[in-house]
Design brief:
single chain; alpha/beta; Rossmann fold; six-stranded mixed sheet; 15 helices; 13 strands; about 40% helix; about 20% strand
């Protein structure tokens, strides 16, 4: 099946330092990921937004001629359009018009695999579509009675709005149930050190996940290839029990309803003890992508979590000065190349340091008959010293948060001698 032809419209608003080419490159990447075929591109630098059509009158005329010439099925705007702007543009251009948030929602819809992801995306799509039903159903907005109508005389658009509200209510209930299940899963992981990978979409988080855990997470050179959080144990050359989760990529102008719908997915990040913020240092807009991720983490209340900054794709940098300047600004950042397996051990060591910072010293005494449980203790605690005395075994431990409770469970409420 042929991909629908589309014209891309890039908007440069005041305060955005990015070039028009960079803005259009990302929009083009989104369009191709959503399986559209971009056949033409237009840009406009705007000082003020036209409340009726978003872009100026002259640019609307230029866009109208481009539509006549290329006959696209869709025109995609790189900014969020109001329902009125959407309606007016479709009336003028006589073809479907979508904006960046809807395009991102389409991509998420294509990539949703699990029950949770599908529910999250569908909820976000319906919430986004609800106020925009006028453009979808304008031709049906006439008085019609019939089966399923609340009143004889309820308009088609009122019926559709009511049906969508009912569906939103059902999906919200379903997501709440999924959220409760996820909370139970996360509760079972309490006391385990949790690390979450975060970053702009397509920076190499899944590749890094595979390097650190030996997992076989999907790696594609596509925006939003990962939607569902994958949680794996860091095993390779790692002395401690640490869980690593790969999360959905972030992007500039992420639809608000999508962020809200992905609450339980993002809770994997909120519950983390440590974030690894992955940045594609070879990308010309890496500074903006880094800032976008930081801003979204603040927006989602995750800015208090400890962060290791990682510059990935150092093998793709043509100018070494870029990396030098980045390290000058962020001296504690780790430079890696997942492709060439460079810097991964340095990153592992940084994670170990962060883990050990959370360990508390404890002294513990066991009877010789209890020596068999030492192997269980090693699974979550660092045994600094084992001292076998005539009548007892003295262990010098370093425990992670929640470790004392685990010890008590293992000893089945036997007395623990603690010096902390």
């Amino acid at each position: 099946m042929n991909s629908p032809k589309t014209i891309l419209v890039g908007i440069k608003l005041p305060g955005n330092p990015s070039s028009s080419e960079i803005l259009l490159d990302e929009l083009k990447g989104l369009a191709v990921t959503a399986e559209y075929d971009p056949v033409a591109e237009l840009t406009q630098r705007l000082n003020e937004i036209n409340p009726k059509t978003f872009i100026g009158r002259g640019k609307v005329e230029e866009l109208k001629h481009a539509v006549i010439h290329h006959s696209p099925e869709v025109v995609i705007f790189d900014e969020e359009l109001s329902p009125r702007q959407n309606r007016e543009l479709e009336k003028i251009l006589k073809c479907r018009v979508i904006d960046r948030p809807w395009l991102i929602l389409e991509i998420f819809s294509h990539h949703a695999r699990t029950r949770e992801a599908k529910t999250q995306v569908e909820l976000a799509r319906l919430k986004y579509a609800l106020p925009r039903l006028t453009k979808m159903w304008g031709h049906l907005s006439r008085q019609r009675g019939g089966i399923g109508m609340k009143d004889v005389g309820e308009t088609q658009i009122q019926l559709d709005q009511r049906m969508i509200r009912n569906e939103i209510h059902k999906l919200e209930k379903k997501l709440n149930q999924i959220d409760r299940e996820k909370k139970t899963q996360r509760k079972s992981r309490q006391g385990t050190f949790k690390v979450a990978l975060v970053g702009y979409t397509n920076v190499g988080k899944s590749s890094l996940m595979n390097k650190l855990t030996g997992a076989n997470t999907l790696v594609e050179n596509k925006l939003f290839a990962t939607l569902d959080p994958t949680v794996r144990k860091i095993k390779k050359n790692f002395p401690y029990p640490v869980l690593l989760s790969d999360t959905v990529g972030l992007i500039n102008k992420l639809p608000h309803d999508l962020v809200a719908s992905f609450k339980s997915t993002l809770d994997e990040v909120r519950d983390a003890d440590l974030l690894i913020h992955v940045v594609d240092i070879s990308h010309p807009e890496y500074k903006d992508q880094l800032q976008t991720t930081d801003d979204l983490l603040i927006q989602m209340g995750m800015d208090e979590i400890e962060v290791i900054l990682v510059f990935n794709k150092i093998d793709s940098i043509e100018d070494i000065e870029i990396l030098e300047n980045a390290h000058e600004k962020f001296p504690s950042a780790v430079s890696i190349s997942c492709k060439k397996n460079e810097g991964i051990d340095v990153l592992r060591q940084k994670i170990i340091i962060q883990y050990e910072k959370r360990l508390s010293p404890y002294l513990m005494e066991l009877e010789h008959s209890q020596a068999g449980i030492i192997s269980q203790i090693r699974k979550f605690a660092l045994i600094v010293k084992e001292d076998y005395k005539e009548d007892r075994i003295c262990l010098s431990l370093r425990l992670p948060p929640g470790g004392k409770a685990k010890l008590k469970n293992i000893l089945n409420s036997q007395e623990i001698s603690v010096n902390g």
